[in-house]
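Task 17 of the worksheet. Students: predict the tertiary structure of the chain below and write it out as structure tokens. Keep your answer in the requested format; marks are given for formatting as well as content.
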Amino acid sequence: MHGTLINSIFAIQNSIMKNILLTLIFSTIGFNFSFAQTEAKIDSIIQTEFKDHNAPGGVVLVSKKGKIIYEKAFGKANLELNVDMTPKNVFQIGSMTKQFTAVSILILESQGKLNVNDPVSKYIPDYPSGNSITIHQLLTHTSGIKDFTKMKSISEIAQKEMSPKMMVDFFKNEPVDFKPGEKFDYNNSGYVLLGHLIEQITGEKYEDFIRKNIFEKAGMDNSFYASDRKIIKNRAYGYHQKSDGYVNKTVINFSVPFASGSLMSTVEDMLKWQNVLNKNIILNKEEGKKAFTKYHLNNSEEYTYGYGWHLKDIDGISTREHGGSIFGFKSMGVYIPDEDIYVIGFSNCDCHSPTQITRDIAKLVLINSNK
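Model answer:
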């Protein structure tokens, strides 16, 4: 009797274990099948922009909860040497640089070295109307100062070595487009001025400050202040498309875009960046919130830009987004805070924009994550 009871218990336990194993097996199969479908759809979205595998290409990474769930490279990193693109390639990220500049300003505020409501004149006394323009307005593109990229004379300095002061002097005496705080108008000059402020306040070069306070702390070992002279391992070369084919990108001196667009990175380093922001490793939670807050114009109208990020939505779900464009390269990143989904896309030809495909992939992953 006793033996029979024990055997019955073992039989029940075995049956339960089999059911658990079968459930795990089928749920895993289901997950793998579901993700395989998602992966195929992501591939399909990317193919709408990157069709030719023998042309300049790009890299796309998708993460959820801080972990990579998709990462692929397309096309060529170097046409002349016929080198295939890989996820490890280093790209110029253009205006995605602005989020690093913005966070640097917030780091300095957290250290008590500035306040975002300070007037520019506090640090650059001779800046025209600097007493009525705040650091906050530079960060949010509401300062009204002239965007140097829209000045006809930009071609005269594009390939010259410019100090931050020379860059500020280049645009500071231009007539303003509107009074500070009157409207939102995306502006590269504001971020060049912020880079100059960082150097004035810290006594350090902008690139050194970024490296020590962000890249090193985030473990971003493959991120740099851009250079065409330095040997940068796994560099993706930039291209333009002309009517008769591709050509190497136009040369620009990176001291010109400076803190508005002169950084280089990889998709994996950008994920590290996103993850340290989420964990408040570089900025405390209170300071971090400032970057992702929507602000108001003088007339109380809200605009959808924080500090270094566009604050948008996909089907009513909040997103933090920013793209970049610089000779030969385009970039785009979309982050969905509620689901911790990050999609980042880079291209090494300014003929291919990852903007729409990145948003489309983010929407796809968002929909699938809610099923």
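Marker's comment: The radius of gyration is 24 Å. The chain has a mean pLDDT of 92.
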